[in-house]
Specification:
The chain is of the alpha+beta class. The protein is built from 5 helices and 12 strands. The two termini are 31 Å apart. The structure holds zinc ion.
Length: 306
């Protein structure tokens, strides 16, 4: 976990700050260098804006970095008209430009994938958002593994992991606290996303203390709802918080449980996905179906103010 947090810190804070500061203090030697530098740094800033998980350090930082990058870019580009197009080809200049060009092409390619993650024309199921008390953030969701860790799993292709943000746009008090109630979403009330029948419940598994996980009961405490020809599962629910029973018919918007941290989860969040079919084995081995919440296709960095 320490490694993951270090990677998050480097990719979301340190690299963007280095790029912004170096644009601010550096002077380009040629127009070509100016363009290549702005495009390559910019394509990384756009990439981390699109695919970064900003609930760790502050959702609003993603906009602040865009703004600072724009200001630094203007300052860097001020000398444009007095620069030569191209210096006499020196070896250093060529290798610098080659490196910059590689970064540029690599991140432009990833950015195309990231844009693609925001749209899909798959058949979908319409659900209502199951949380009602604040600002919720999509940590995993969307049409690409760049923004959705579930994407490679056929049944969970369009699964979502949802956390809640505080006023600062951060999902927890502390970077990665072990106390569950330091996570904004923990113990939030969970409401049924649809009309349907409860077909399966697990309610007795403990809430794990981060970073401990339950590798055997992957979904942890869960509610499975049958609606039309689909199954919808809500997972990682708080122990003993489920107040509906198997076989019960429920209505959209009905209180059903509370968010917890049971199962294979690194921290409190709500996992939700839907599959075609009516058999329980379809849940994790069937074909996942796209979920549209209240008319929106939710992707990482989508906010839902409920
Ligand atoms: Zn999940």
């Amino acid at each position: 976990m320490l490694f993951s947090i270090s990677v998050l810190l480097a990719t979301h804070l340190i690299v963007p700050i280095i790029f912004i500061v170096s644009l601010w203090i550096d002077f380009p030697k040629s127009q070509i260098e100016l363009f290549m530098t702005i495009w390559s740094y910019g394509s990384y800033i756009l990439f981390i804006f699109l695919v970064g998980n900003w609930s760790w350090f502050g959702y609003y930082l993603r906009y602040l970095f865009l703004f600072l990058f724009a200001i630094a870019t203007i300052k860097y580009a001020l000398s444009f008209t007095i620069l030569p197009l191209w210096l006499n080809p020196e070896l250093n200049q060529w290798s610098d430009l080659l490196a910059v060009g590689f970064v540029l092409i690599f991140f432009m390619f990833l950015n195309l994938k990231a844009f693609k993650a925001h749209s899909t024309f798959e058949p979908s199921i319409s659900l209502s958002f199951p949380l009602k008390q604040g600002t919720y953030y999509v940590a995993h969701g969307g049409n690409s593994s760049l923004v959705n860790s579930h994407y490679k799993n056929q049944a969970q292709r369009f699964a979502l992991d949802i956390v809640k943000l505080n006023l600062w746009g951060i999902r927890a008090r502390g970077l990665y606290p072990s106390e569950l109630n330091r996570y904004e979403i923990f113990d939030n009330e969970l409401y049924s996303p649809c009309d349907g029948e409860i077909v399966n419940i697990t309610n007795e598994l403990p809430d794990n203390i981060p970073p401990l996980k339950d590798d055997i009961n992957l979904a942890g405490n869960k509610i499975v709802i049958k609606t039309d020809n689909y199954l919808v599962v809500l997972a990682h629910i708080r122990i003993s918080s489920i107040i509906v029973t198997q076989g019960e018919l429920i209505n959209k918007g009905q209180l059903i449980a509370k968010v917890g941290n049971s199962g294979n989860t690194t921290e409190p969040h709500l996992h939700i996905h839907a599959v075609q079919g009516e058999q329980l084995e379809d849940l994790f081995h069937g074909i996942g179906v796209l979920i549209i919440f209240d008319g929106r296709f939710l992707v990482r960095n989508s906010l839902v103010k409920a």
